[in-house]
Design brief:
The protein is α+β, with helices and mostly antiparallel strands. It contains two helices and eight strands. The chain has helices spanning 3-33, 120-135; strands at residues 37-40, 49-51, 59-61, 63-72, 78-87, 92-101, 106-111, 115-117. Strands 1, 4, 5, 6, 7 and 8 form a six-stranded antiparallel beta sheet that branches. Strands 2-3 form a two-stranded antiparallel ribbon.
Length: 154
């Protein structure tokens, strides 16, 4: 395999690993709390992909590849732990956030610091770091913005 192909495999394996870690996290949420979970796999976004920020200009990327896990709360809403790999010709960017999804809106509960890099090796490291940070936030279910009791029924 040529070096370019090896790097492509490295980033794909990193995303697959993130997906499987998030799926395992979802399974643990199911096991501990009897909550329905499902993993969302990588589907390429349209091109270009734009991120809109509240206090700055939008950023435009060539594409976005998201992975995540959703936990359905007893009241029908869901919480998503999501990671996105974005890129353009100059850099790789990895972002992660936790959102509360209702039938009417998507509420940002926690946003992790965005990481950007110019090399695949650094990007893979960022994917691994952010995946670890995401799965460490099971405590988000006790956030006051998430109404109701997501824990086991008494």
């Amino acid at each position: 395999m040529d070096p370019f192909s090896e790097q492509a495999v490295e980033i794909l394996e990193s995303l697959a690993s993130a997906y499987h870690r998030l799926r395992s996290f979802g399974y643990e949420m199911y096991r501990k709390n009897s909550l329905e979970t499902w993993a969302s796999s990588a589907l390429f976004s349209g091109s270009p992909f734009t991120i809109h920020h509240e206090n700055s200009a939008p950023e435009v990327f060539s594409r976005c590849l998201p992975v995540g896990v959703h936990v359905k709360l007893r009241d029908g809403r869901s919480v998503e732990w999501g990671l996105e790999l974005l890129w353009d010709r100059a850099r790789w960017t990895v972002s992660a956030e936790i959102r509360l999804e209702t039938t009417d809106e998507s509420i940002l509960i926690h946003e992790f610091p965005v990481r950007s890099s110019r090399t695949i090796g650094d990007c893979v490291e960022h994917i691994q770091e952010l995946t670890g940070e995401l799965v460490a936030r099971e405590d988000i279910l006790s956030d006051p913005r998430i109404a109701g009791n997501p824990g086991p029924s008494s």
